[in-house]
Amino acid sequence: MTFNLLGKVRIPMEVKELILQAEDIHKATELISSKLKKPVIIENKNFELIAYSSTFDDFDQTQQKTILSKKCPIFIIDRLKKEGIVTRLEKQSDPIRVHPMEDLGFQQRVVIAAKHLGHTLGYVWVQESEQSLNEEEMDFLEEITGHLGKLIYDQFMKENAKEGRKEELLWQLLHHEYASESQFRHDASLAQLKIPDRFSIVVFSVTAPQYKSMLDDLENTVNRFRTNRHLYYLKTEFQLILFIEGRGFDRFSSRDIARDLIDVVKVETGEEDFYHFLIGVGKEYTKIYYMRKSFLEALEVIETANFIGPRPETMPREFPKLGLYRYLAALYEKNSSEDYYSEDLLTLIKNDTTKQTDLLFTLEAYLANNGKGKQTASELFIHPNTLNYRVKQIQELTNIDFSDFNMKAYLYTELLLLNNVDSYYERYKAALQK
């Protein structure tokens, strides 16, 4: 160290040169910290951790939380915005002293915006603790932050290139566009793409173009969800495709994780907006060759949901549970082309129309619950005696035999179409006019 006549500490020129020559932001952070004798943290513009000085361990509570969670706590960010600190950082290039927020575990510190090509790319935080930075040290910070901005920019571009390569390899998996599995695994290793031993593909698709902005919020939810789980995702204009890794030899664990994610999305999106998503979950596999298969299964669930326009929660989201729903489109085409109708169901539709009954919907619920009266009545919010009366009406009006499994299976598929596909129901209603 050298001293000027006023006794202020001057930063040796060679230290500044070392920092300005550094190509690694972690090395630059350590150099800054060691010369200022204070803890230093560097964050990007989204307040996500980029680097911190490991030679100092007396970080305050806020900085400790930032290091552990890789992001500044949201309540600190809100306070900084409220007090105008973030706005000042955007407008000025010199350091700003931020006073303590003792109630939040935030000690006094100096912050300066790291800019490159005229844009703020991040922030450099120096925790002052017992002794404040002097004027020379503040000038030093201002002189080096331009280079730190460039280092943040360079790191961002490298990570983007790496993420871009990962995305390219994931698309190859979904479309079987690789020469051999060994070559793919080699390329994945170079790109630091971890291939899961157990996985399922989950696809979120919006129901209409006007809802595509919801995918941005969904992406934020997914990023929070994956902080302690391993998953990748690809984003298209109207879809988010997730690669969910299961747990070792725990069968169906990727499916369980997918269910947890869907529950989180439902809570964060809200009941009403949640149903603007169509969601498909492919089967769990353990060989990367079947990655595309799981993807296509998830898409089939979405295509089926899009076809029938289901009421909330009526249709399974998981491909293995799709069951009869897989064949509804084929049944629709066959019956429509052959102008086929069930005489029993025509009778019930006529009765519902003329006498304002609800026999058609009652029949579907009764069959779906395998003839369990108490469960069906609870689902329909009616008294069991009311259900018994409706079932008796159905038996009197039709030739339906509830002991005939084949008949029940057929009627249930036909009812799924009638109660969920408007055009199919209108075709039946039109037949009543003939």
Report on this structure.
- This is DNA-binding transcriptional regulator, PucR family.
- Keywords: DNA-binding.
- Belongs to the CdaR family.
- Residues 180-303 form the CdaR GGDEF-like domain.
- Pfam families: GGDEF_2, HTH_30.
- Helix 17 crosses helix 18 (422-431).
- The model is unreliable at 1-10 (pLDDT under 50).
- The termini are far apart.
- This protein is of the alpha+beta class.
- A hairpin with a 5-residue loop joins strand 1 (2-3) and strand 2 (9-10).
- Helix content is 53%, strand content 13%.
- A 5-stranded antiparallel beta sheet has the order 4-3-7-6-5, with helices on both faces. A 4-stranded antiparallel beta sheet has the order 9-10-8-11, with helices on both faces.
- The protein has 3 domains: 13-161, GAF domain (Beta-Lactamase, 2-Layer Sandwich); 165-319, 2-Layer Sandwich (Alpha-Beta Plaits), CATH 3.30.70; 329-433, Arc Repressor Mutant, subunit A (Orthogonal Bundle), CATH 1.10.10.
- The relative contact order is 0.06.
